[in-house]
Amino acid sequence: MQDLDSKLNEDHENLVRLNMEFMIPWLFELEVVGTLKDDLRCDGRTRLDYRPIILETGLVSNASGSARLRLANSDVLVGVKVELASPLPEKPLEGRLEFFVDCSANATPEFEGRGGEDLANEICRFLQMSYMSGDTINLAELSVLAGQQCWVLYVDILILECGGNLYDAVSLAVKSALYTTQIPSIKVATMDGDQPELELSEDPYDTKRLDTQNVPCFVTLMKIGNHYIVDPTPEEECCSSSGIVVAVSGTKKITAVRKIGSGSLHPESLVSMLKTGSEVGAVVNKILMNKLLEEERAGNTQKVGFMR
Question: What is its main location (predicted)?
Answer without folding.
Answer: cytoplasm
